[in-house]
Design brief:
The structure is a homodimer.
Chain A: H1 3-13, H2 26-33, H3 37-44, H4 52-65, H5 71-78, E1 83-88, H6 96-109, E2 113-118, H7 123-135, E3 140-143, H8 154-158, E4 162-166, E5 176-180, H9 182-195, E6 201-205, H10 211-226, E7 236-238, H11 243-254, E8 262-265, H12 268-280, E9 286-290, E10 304-307, H13 310-326, E11 334-337, E12 340-342
Parallel strand pairs in A: 1-2, 1-3, 3-4, 4-5, 5-11, 6-7, 6-8, 8-9, 9-10
Antiparallel strand pairs in A: 10-12
Helix pairs in contact in A: 2-3, 2-4, 6-13, 9-10, 11-12
Chain B binds a DNA duplex through α2, α3 and α5.
Chain lengths: ~350, ~350
DNA sequence: TTGAAAGCGCTAACAG
DNA sequence: CTGTTAGCGCTTTCAA
């Protein structure tokens, strides 16, 4: 601790004790500057109607005391917190990094802060988090839902908390949602494999209670059906996407009778695990994954993917949120963002058996 | 909008207008339940001293009105916000995902929410963000600094905002800091290359004003010196780590007279760019990178790295923060976390010229 | 067991 | 241009 630091402590310690570690308030500043409370407020908020001289006296007092406006009090009075909440599945998932960054960027453009939390794909934890954010009176909420029943949000939305869902739709309530075209993307990806001569195509996806997982499975089935292929149950594996289960699933469908010659992976984690399995596998197997991921182009072969634009997803949702916050109450809307097939080699391999 | 939803609107609309979208307050609940304000407060906060019967009446009123406690007001009164701020460089950077997730997890264990923002490596923006968080009266702050002068934080720290720096030390103030051993890690990585027969080893790093970048450079120089090799300026490139500059730097040191036979890359972004360059390069070049990254093991050759544990960095910092928040004022501390060399092939290649 | 009153630090509304 | 007053919705204190 420097000497300067210690003097600061002594200085602030002169003020009457309160719960904020003896911080000076506008009242203290007013007393020191010899002006009224409201004048301090004017200076702090850059409102007009203060003589340069007065302003300087107030500013000096602010600097001397180390005053910083207490936004908690301000919020209480103004009713707007200038903050929005973001609830997602897992901040550590590379898919959500760009998404939350995009939301943050838009929030920043609107002078708002971002409070965020991970639901860990647990509906209860999602609700807990959302309600905690509502209790803080965030102005709005961007939610990547873990659960499928969001009726608990009804009173909040009715009370004016703008809410936009991303990546998966809300359950049981009418709300804005921004989605990638999971169905179309998966269908295109599987069709791409079929176009390259495959007939036995496997699908490894997440738990079907997750909307995107169900949609992608639907896309897979649609593509197979369009091609007149009867899918076998052995080719389809759904469940949690931890590496162990996914690796076992991949190995199972790659071996035995009538093994698959191509795999469609339902999300980035699945894709990566399948790549690991295939790296050890004796036969060449074609692969298309849903979600792009870093370095997919550097692997050999490069991994063909159905890419969705996570940043755009986040930006679109956040912009929608602030439109609602600022404007008239529009009708709720569903925004579908297109996916894009990126060919890198793995999806263009021919059947090896 | 369901019928239930509309009734909720009508219901809340009866309450006197305020700034929170006509939300019921404890006063409203008290009126409806026919009890005093304080009794509602007791029920809401689970305080003892309320008859089961009264409690039920209050609870019914709460449910009927859709009441949710306004934590802004609570905060104003209690002085603690139960939230901490995290300022990092870029939420979208894969290195920070696990770190912020770890911080969030610890916050959650302590019942606190996480407010975070990206500084975009801009000192002004860092300060702006930090002060905005202080104005919100976050209880504490975890900062990955972009700037190197943090004296602006002195009054805040004196006023009781617990602050822990991560990844890089604070400038101009005395504060806790949690670091990876950049110097030792880089020295070990370079030494590893030297041990495999290299003499001309290149170093591509970030701007030396960034503490970790400077430390890693120092580690590189120490290893070279220990081996009795005089480094040439041509082998060293420092600056912003955008792909274009890094690629040019790599190509420059790989060609011309006395080209390097091995490269040490100063962070994950640099490493990835160098991998791309080497993939196109006619000669085999050894590579060790600072920071681990996903799929490094799947590339051919696998990329040898000096790994730091981002999650542990975040967890350690956050735990330190809450120790401070809860306990006596310890002396500030510097915590160094070890790095780990992970051999995957690229760092074990012999010199090719 | 319950409630009335005071006040957290700020801003809105209205005087001077 | 400046200051005073009255809350924002909650918790604290203290009395019933």
């Amino acid at each position: 601790m420097t000497t300067t630091g210690q003097r600061t402590v002594a200085e602030t310690a002169r003020h009457p004790a309160n719960r904020y570690g003896n911080r000076p308030t506008m009242k203290d500043v007013a007393a020191r500057a010899g002006v009224g409370l409201k004048t301090v407020s004017r200076v702090v908020n850059g409102e007009p109607g203060v003589t340069p001289d007065t302003e300087r006296r107030v500013q000096d007092a602010i600097d001397a005391l180390g005053f910083r406006r207490n936004d908690s009090a301000r919020v209480l009075r103004k009713g707007r917190t200038a903050s929005i909440g973001l609830v997602l599945e897992d901040l550590a998932d590379p898919f959500y990094g760009p998404l939350s960054r995009a939301v943050e960027e838009v929030a920043r453009e609107h002078g708002a802060l971002l409070i965020n939390g991970s639901s860990a794909e647990d509906p209860e934890r999602e609700q807990e988090l959302v309600l905690a954010l509502c209790a803080r009176r965030v102005d709005g909420l961007v939610v990547i839902p873990a659960g499928d029943d969001h009726r608990y949000l009804e009173p909040e939305i009715a009370a004016g908390v703008a809410t936009v869902f991303v990546d998966r739709p809300a359950g049981g309530i009418d709300a804005d949602v921004v989605l990638s075209d999971s169905f179309g993307g998966a269908r295109d990806g599987v069709r791409h494999l079929l176009d390259h001569g495959h007939h036995r195509v496997g699908f490894i996806g997440d738990q079907p209670r997750i909307h995107t997982a169900a949609e992608r499975l639907r896309g897979y089935r649609a593509a197979m059906e369009d091609a007149g292929i009867a899918t076998e149950d052995r080719w389809i594996s759904l469940g949690v996407t931890d590496p162990v289960r996914v690796a076992e699933a991949a190995e199972a469908m790659l071996t035995g009778q009538d093994p698959v010659t191509a795999i469609f992976a339902g999300n980035n984690r699945v894709t990566v695990t399948v790549v690991r399995v295939l790296a050890e596998f004796p036969r060449e197997v074609a692969l298309v994954g849903f979600d792009d991921f870093e370095l997919a182009d550097l692997l050999r072969p490069g991994v063909t993917v159905v890419a969705q634009d996570a940043a755009r997803l986040g930006r679109t949702a956040a912009e929608r949120l602030f439109q609602r916050l600022e404007g008239a109450p529009y009708a709720t809307e569903r925004i579908d963002l297109p996916t894009r097939l990126i060919q890198r080699g793995s999806g263009e391999l021919p059947p090896s058996v």
